[in-house]
Design a protein that fits this description.
The chain is α/β, with parallel strands linked by helices. The chain has 3 domains: 2-67, Winged helix-like DNA-binding domain superfamily/Winged helix DNA-binding domain (Arc Repressor Mutant, subunit A, Orthogonal Bundle); 89-163 and 275-310, D-Maltodextrin-Binding Protein, domain 2 (3-Layer(aba) Sandwich), CATH 3.40.190.10; 166-272, D-Maltodextrin-Binding Protein, domain 2 (3-Layer(aba) Sandwich). The chain has helices spanning 5-16, 19-26, 30-44, 60-86, 100-104, 106-117, 130-138, 184-187, 200-211, 225-231, 288-304; strands at 49-52, 55-58, 92-98, 121-127, 144-148, 156-164, 167-171, 191-195, 217-222, 238-241, 261-265, 274-281, 309-310. The strands form 4 sheets. A 6-stranded mixed sheet has the order 4-3-5-12-6-13, sandwiched between helices. The longest helix is centred in the N-terminal third of the chain and has 27 residues, at 60-86. It is elongated, with a radius of gyration of 23 Å.
């Protein structure tokens, strides 16, 4: 909508930190964009940006105004979604922030299933962890967050939680592959590939190792579970994952989803299960498309993890 154009311009500049970069992204000349910003600043009666040699930065007034802009844009998206629903054709744009675990198998299947029913709905998926996922809700950059980490922010309204036990992954020829359950002490001495420190899995493992005064022989760290899992095909090493990051149901999770790789549960006496929290910004009314997608993924999680889903 035309009356939102200047607001979008300001938001884009705040994200890019540069009028030139924002102009390139918006397909407008830097001079024209700067003129638009000066007009808005004149109407408000306050400058919104600090002009720096390297670009621009929001000042205090600008931070307040940009938060207002994002709130207005979110409200407009919600209203547009409600109006579109009146026609019987669901439209909208759903933005989801999630850790890498759910982005591997669960969310691709969920999004594809939703779009089969509502092909006019588009999606934006962003990988981020813990605090970053919570922050993306507050900044209105995302509608829904899935975080395998304790909820720290009061603004994160938890719609559902799913307990997830840690699994140990290895080549089917690995000496530990014959075990039904893996103890942490069993892993000591074997080469280990760990997710990076931002991962909820890594946090649970590190806490458990410190508690038991154990140390793994870490040979690799990565934020790519695809890399870690495929590496196991070429080396007698161990890696770790949660069920939502593996193909299939809990009953078939031992197959790991890749031929030649097996998954064995880590004893909960050593590493207690963590929780994936699914939610949105407290007090916010989600657009119809996002609200229905949230309902869908909670329902699917309840079906896949019937004994592990709750609040």
């Amino acid at each position: 909508m035309r009356f939102m154009a200047n607001l979008k311009f300001i938001d884009t500049i705040s994200r890019e930190g540069s009028i030139r970069k924002a102009a390139d992204k918006l397909a407008i000349t830097s001079t024209a964009l700067n003129r638009r910003i000066l007009q808005v600043e004149e109407e408000i009666g306050q400058p919104l940006f600090e002009r720096l040699p390297s670009g621009v930065r929001l000042n205090t007034a600008g931070e307040i105004f940009v938060q207002h802009i994002r709130s207005q844009m979110a409200d407009l998206a919600r209203v547009q979604s409600q109006i579109a629903d009146l026609s019987g054709i669901r439209r909208g744009h759903v933005r989801v922030a999630s850790g890498a675990d759910a982005l591997r198998h669960f969310l691709p299947e969920a999004v594809a299933g939703y779009r089969r029913e509502h092909p006019a709905v588009t999606f934006e998926m962003t990988r981020c962890y813990g605090d970053a996922a919570e922050a993306s809700l507050l900044s209105l950059d995302t509608d829904i967050a899935m975080s395998f980490a304790p909820v720290r922010a009061a603004h994160f309204h938890v719609a559902a939680g799913v307990r997830q036990q840690i699994y140990c992954l290895m080549n089917e020829a690995h000496p530990l592959a014959s075990r039904d359950v893996i103890r942490l002490r069993d892993c000591v001495g074997h080469p280990a590939i760990l997710p990076n420190v931002m991962s909820g899995i890594r946090h649970l493992l590190d806490t458990a190792l410190i508690r038991r005064n154990l140390e793994l022989n870490t040979i690799l760290e990565s934020d790519s579970f695809e890399f870690m899992q495929n590496y196991l095909l070429h080396d007698e090493a161990l890696s770790f994952q949660i069920p939502i990051g593996l193909a299939g149901s809990v009953e078939t999770v031992v197959d790991s989803g890749i031929a030649g790789i097996v998954a064995r549960p880590v004893d909960t006496a050593d590493v207690p299960p963590g929780v994936i929290h699914i939610g949105y910004l407290k007090g916010r009314v989600l657009p119809v498309a996002a609200a229905k997608f949230l309902d869908d993924i909670i329902h699917q999680l309840q079906q896949r993890f019937p004994d592990e889903t709750g609040l």
